[in-house]
Amino acid sequence: MLVSSSDEMETVARGAAGNWVEVGRITKSVGLDGGLLIQLHSEDASNLLACESIRLAGRPGEIPFKVERFEPSNPAADGRARVRAWLAGLDSRERTEPWLSAGVSVPESALAPLPEGEFYWRDLIGLSVHTLGGRDLGRVEDIWPTGGVDLLVVRADGEPVLIPALRSLLSEIDTAARKIFIDPPPGLLPEDD
To answer: If 0-12 CB within 10 Å is exposed, 13-18 middle and 19+ buried, where does residue 2 land?
Structure first.
């Protein structure tokens, strides 16, 4: 896979603050003992599961919590990983309710290094995208997991262009230059010549 997920990314551009990286959101309470269901922005929960503490950002504020335990859950319909979590100090449904919809972040240092040629979403969000022919398509503003091939959401003006994150399509990713070069097949791009 060219674009790796792991709890990274994603929304880094939207959710990272300092050295924390948003990897998911709390979707609901689980049980009566303070359990929370976290839906990750990606299909891989390994980075989250390795953390001893996480930070929640929601209505009560941005607060780090010690993790008491994680349990894997079934993935969401779109393939994103889901994890049940129990956090120190949140020991009842009443204490978890204010955190519903909160962002879940992990320390940036907790992100595992990726193999050559793979990238966290946060590394790609904000990069400019160009065809090999020199056409400027805009910048990656988001990445949508699909359960299959992730889609780069690229926007210049107007409607976004969805670019499948396929190795055969993404000819070059230069994070230092903050550019992605693609070789699109006919018909992929609007107003394709």
So the answer is: middle
Binning pLDDT at 50, 70 and 90, where does residue 18 land?
low
CA distances from 105 to 26, 32, 50, 100, 102 (A): 11, 24, 13, 14, 10
Which pTM does this prediction carry?
A: 0.68
Which helix (H) or strand (E) segment is 15 a member of?
Answer: helix 12-15
Q: Which amino acid is residue 27, in one-letter code?
A: T
Across the range 34-44, mean pLDDT stands at 91
SS3 state of residue 172 = strand
More confident residue, 34 or 158: 34
Residue 58 and residue 45 in contact, taking contact as beta carbons nearer than 8 Å: no
Tokens coding 4: 């790796």
* Closest listed residue to residue 125, CA positions, set 159, 160, 152, 163: 152
| Count of Cβ atoms closer than 10 Å to residue 131 Cβ | 16
Strand intervals (E) in the chain: 20-30, 35-40, 53-58, 61-73, 82-87, 103-107, 128-131, 136-144, 151-155, 161-164, 170-174, 179-182
At 106, list the tokens: 């992990």
